[in-house]
Amino acid sequence: MESLFLLVLGNTEVSTIPGISVAGATPELTKLTPPADAEYLFYEKPRIIDAIPVTPEGHPTPAIITKAARELANFPVLVVRGGTYLAPLVPHVHISSAVGRDFRKGPALPEFGEIIRMAKLLGEELNRSGVDELVIGESTPGGTTTAQAVLWAMGYDARTSSASPENPQTLKEKVIAEGFRRVGIDNGQLKDNPLEALRQFGDPMMATVIGLSLGFRKNVVLAGGTQMLAVSALLKALGEDLSRFMIATTKWVVSDKSATFLQTAKEIGVITYAADLDFSKSEFKGLRDYERGYVKEGVGAGGATWLAIKAGFSPEEVSAKVEELYRRLMKMM
């Protein structure tokens, strides 16, 4: 089966709310995380900033897992700009430069229809190629909050994960409540209007992945954590048969007790896979801390690992390659 790995980049103003996202050393730097993640897959380090994206505590982007899996399995990567502040300095497909708005102040995605239309065209073209399967990863700081808002608007009692071991669930719920008050809805009131849930509370990554999935009619692996639950819920509500979809994530998302990944996936009716990586014996604290609940997923880490395993590599080999990449990074610092 010919697989193509797509990395969809998205930004939302929600990521700049202090405390909501640790997908960057500061809230302002989360604006640069998506293009930097994409660049790191192609270069030894990003070009848009002079270091790989890290959390405020210095933990490396999960792009290091995706890069490791790619170096082993040599699968092709196509970067898709779903809606970001800046374009990545690598070849990519441009869908939109419209970032998601702060949904407390107005609709998050007024341009959702055009984003879906453009992404669907790309999906249709890929459907005509020899590709049998799309593995779609994402880099979207703040995206777990937009995902939880969409899931709540559609009636799912879901809690999304976080790149921090201290999931800012109270802050997420406060932000979502403010958005719901603006629209004048309670949980579940947009169950029968998924596109309105996306318009009011979503982000450009969601709209792009939905468009791609509607255009590409073969197998789709949604390579992400709880953000892909929102995508799955939207696709289901739009009438898609979820039997051709799978969410591929990591064991750290599945074991996150502050989130409801497996319960919500079961409620939606989408199958899941969890990459069994282990950094507990790493010589680097930044990697060992993945086992303590830092980072967890992103940049399609689970899906990229799944592609490496399909190509005959073990989770241990992927973990060892991550260690090697981290060592290379340390030498450059």
Give a brief description:
By secondary structure, the protein is an alpha/beta fold. 41% of the residues lie in helices and 12% in strands. A seven-stranded parallel β-sheet has the order 3-2-1-4-5-6-7.
What does this structure look like?
It is a single chain. It contains 13 helices and seven strands. It has 333 residues and is of the alpha/beta class. It has a single domain, classed as Nicotinate-nucleotide-dimethylbenzimidazole phosphoribosyltransferase (CobT), large domain (Rossmann fold, 3-Layer(aba) Sandwich), CATH 3.40.50. Strand 5, helix 8 and strand 6 form a beta-alpha-beta unit. Helix 1 runs parallel beside helix 2, helix 2 packs parallel to helix 12 and helix 3 packs parallel to helix 7. The protein is globular, with a radius of gyration of 18 Å. The termini are far apart.
